[in-house]
Amino acid sequence: MQSLSHWINNQAYQADETCLDDLNPADGTLLARVPVAGLGTVNQAVAAAVQAQKAWAAQPVHKRAQIMFNFRGLISAHHDELVELISLDNGKTLADAKGELQRGLEVVEYACGAPELLKGEHSRRVSGDIDSWSEFHSLGVVLGITPFNFPAMVPLWMIPMALICGNAFVLKPSEKVPMVANRLAELLAEAGLPAGVFSVVHGNRNTAELLIDHLDIQAVSFVGSTAAAKAIYQRAAAGGKRVQALGGAKNHAVIMPDADLDNAASTLIGAAYGGSGQRCMAISVAVCVEDGTADRLIQHLLPRLDELKVAGSQQQEADMGPLIDEMAVQRVGRALDEAHGQGAALIRDGRQSPLLPERGCFVGPSLVDHVQPRMSCYQQEIFGPVLSVVRVNSLDEALTLANQHEYGNGACIFTESGAAASEFTSQMQAGMVGVNVPLPVPMAFHSFGGWKQSLFGDLLVYGPDGVRFYTKRKTITQRWLKSTGHSTAFGQL
Ligand code: NAD
Fold first, then answer.
1. Residue 281 is inside which H or E element, if any?
2. Same domain, residue pair 179 and 318
3. Which residue segment(s) compose the domain that 89 sits in?
4. What are the alphabetically sorted keywords of the record (predicted)?
5. ipTM for the whole complex
6. Pocket residues: Cβ below 6 A from ligand 1
7. For residue range 379-432, what is the model confidence (pLDDT) as tens digits?
8. Which of 470, 445, 446 is nearest to 457 (CA)?
9. Based on the domain organization, do 236 and 334 belong to the same domain?
10. Based on the domain organization, do 222 and 269 belong to the same domain?
11. What residue owns the CA closest to ligand 1's atom 40?
12. Number of domains forming the structure of the chain
């Protein structure tokens, strides 16, 4: 068991504060005590960031990029250790943790291109002798507040982008998975990041609010539940700050009658149950066009689902680890009870999966058929290993259903028809859309974010939008009059 510290000025920082328990979701043992920062620690971290930021922004951009290259090398050198830490604290399998770290690393790699990304734009001769150009300037001190389900990847969506743009970054990680943040902080310091430029402030909602309200915080990046995203968007915007707040999801997969069901079922198993369904891009609804498609899909899913091994995340053979905590187990249980009570068919109830470990927050994979849009298990984000099957009669009906849902993060279609795929990609109201790809997570050189209640703000995270979010633009218009060969009026005096 560790007593975690905050991280300020490239060193551990402790204060006399209350602490929370960070429990291992796989067995309930105490992993760490997490301090809950109050105003004193918040002020220390932000003051250190303000102090360091100007010199950091003044460094040549290729020097900042060089530190990102070093950071990239250090993440690779400590790959296995980081993967184990992610898996230990969050509960996800080692394979999942590996995937998470890889996606985070890709953003670090993208940020290594800082000199190219921050080159600005130039227009020569916009009029007469006038040239005009736009420059990217840093914002100052920016804040990131991150969720439990990706302890490394989501912070890495933000940190490299904010830093290469010349900002200082304060991270408030999820209190449920606080350990990885400190390790990333140590690696950034080892990479050569100057003291004060990156801080970790641990704590809960109250800590997050103290940080959001701090007058020296210029921008807030948030990833988490929709209720918090909305509240943070309103709070930070009311304080005149720039905000990107990514919220929850209910991602639909539309299965057409002509789909390759073998492929659809194989990939849906990973998309619905990977990470125990605790992914913002998890597919939680399979919308089957025609009853026969639903029946056949379920027949393809069941043998695969029954083979899934639910076990302690660090066991190599585990396909699914535990949920994050007991509250999550209760929430999934309630969703299944309500589904049953409202008339859906529980084809598999994950609470009764055979061979569930006795200790820890384990729920096996659940499959619910004949789900109707009025049911709470359809309307709410369950955020657990539950796939709901909804039956419709046409692609139009599937699109209307998915588009009426309050969330619009990701969506996909399984089909062999180009016309259906084209109709789906053009009509689907979601930020990330896949064709025969159930988890259409954009690469680091695009940007990630949803529509509707899945994103509050204008700019997405990482990629080109990340550069835009973490910079303000200055456009300069310049004219130098040509020399006439005559001496100046001043010279004639
Ligand atoms: P959460 O909203 O409970 O907490 C996220 C972070 O916000 C934590 O650090 C927490 O301390 C802080 N927080 C919580 N409420 C707050 C408030 N009112 N004001 C300020 N800070 C607050 O989310 P979680 O349970 O950690 O994560 C799961 C949720 O995150 C799911 O809804 C999932 O869909 C969503 N998520 C979304 C994306 C995306 O890209 N859209 C990615 C990952 C997770």
1. none
2. no
3. 2-247+454-477
4. NAD, Oxidoreductase
5. 0.99
6. 145-150, 154, 172, 174-175, 204-205, 208-209, 223-225, 228, 231-232, 246-249, 280, 381, 383, 409, 450, 454
7. 999 999 999 999 999 999 999 999 999 999 999 999 999 999 999 999 999 999
8. 470
9. no
10. no
11. 246
12. 2
